[in-house]
Amino acid sequence: MGHQQGWWARGLAAVAVLAVGGCTAVDDPAAPRVSDAKPPVSSSTGAPGGGSDTGTLPGVPTAEQARAELGELKVAPHGSMSGYSRAKFPHWASQGESCDSRETVLERDGTNVTRDGECRAVSGRWVSVYDGKTFTDASDLDIDHMVPLANAWRSGANTWTQEKRKAFANDLTHPQLLAVSAASNRSKGDQGPDEWQPPSQTYWCTYARAWVSVKSTYELSVTENEKSTLTDMLGTCPS
Predict the structure, then answer these.
(1) In sequence order, what DSSP letters do the residues of 160-204 get, joined into one string?
(2) Distance, C-alpha 239 to centroid of its chain
(3) More confident residue, 149 or 6
(4) Burial class (CB in 10 A: 0-12, 13-18, 19+), 45
(5) SS3 of 33, please?
(6) Backbone angles phi, psi at 162, to 5 degrees
């Protein structure tokens, strides 16, 4: 897939330009907010919300495109977790002007967001598309990797270079990063769509389209159960 290698090369070039600009990357894998070992949270249903539109999430394909991409994905059992570490997916990377990937997504996904001198969101309004809950405190939000890092590792990322894993963990071009409630993100953990779906069923169509797009872009495999569930979720999309 030459076109995919092309976008990745261009993305790395952009990262290099930012680095030359003198910005220090914020790549602290030990930060609690970005741990795959997400703590358990109490069950909370909340009111459905989020809608079936893509909102601020970039690069979401149509349902038809997603079905075609899903049909081309390699189907294989999960690989081993041997050697996995979040440190092998450095994040959150600098995006310039003292901002990192997390703060960039918070600004993109919120409304009336104001930042302090260190680019931290100090006010704003966010709606978590996973569960329809509204927040005005950025500390109540996590930045979710649509395809979790551990899931990516088990479906092909274990063979990647560190540089490519960093690009994956900080991808702002494809539908890989979004701001959601900490509770929903930690409930999801590193589970695939066959094990966890957003509580708000109206978001299932967008979720499946985004998941398939990321896996297709990065040539990651899917399990049989994962593919079956994604097919069902795509079935919730409007005709």
Answers:
(1) S-HHHHHHHHT-SSSTTEEEEEHHHHHHHTT--TTT---S-GGGH
(2) 26
(3) 149
(4) exposed
(5) helix
(6) -60, -35
Number of domains in the chain: 1
How far apart CA 237 and CA 10 sit, in angstroms, is 32
Token pair 């797009």: residue: 213
Contact 105, 92 (CB under 8 A): no
Token pair belonging to 54: 């893509």
pLDDT at residue 1 greater than cutoff 80: no
From CA 183, how far away is CA 128, in angstroms rounded? 10
What is the structure's pLDDT at 23? 32
pTM metric for this prediction: 0.79
Whole-angstrom distance, CA of residue 96 vs CA of residue 21? 8
| Cβ–Cβ < 8 Å for 200, 48 | yes
- Say how far apart CA 205 and CA 184 lie, in whole Å: 17
Is residue 33, in this structure, part of any structural domain at all? no
Which residues share a beta bridge with 179?
Answer: 143
Mean pLDDT within 86-95: 94
Residue 216 lies in a domain: yes
* 72 inside domain: yes
Q: Exposed, middle or buried by CB within 10 Å (0-12, 13-18, 19+), for 236?
A: middle
Residue 35 placed within a domain:
no
Can you give the C-alpha Rg of the chain in angstroms? 17
Which of 171, 61, 60, 57 is CA-nearest to residue 109? 57
Residue 83 domain boundaries = 2-26+48-234
- The answer to whether 189 touches 129, Cβ cutoff 8 Å, is no
Confidence of residue 55 (pLDDT cuts 50, 70, 90): confident
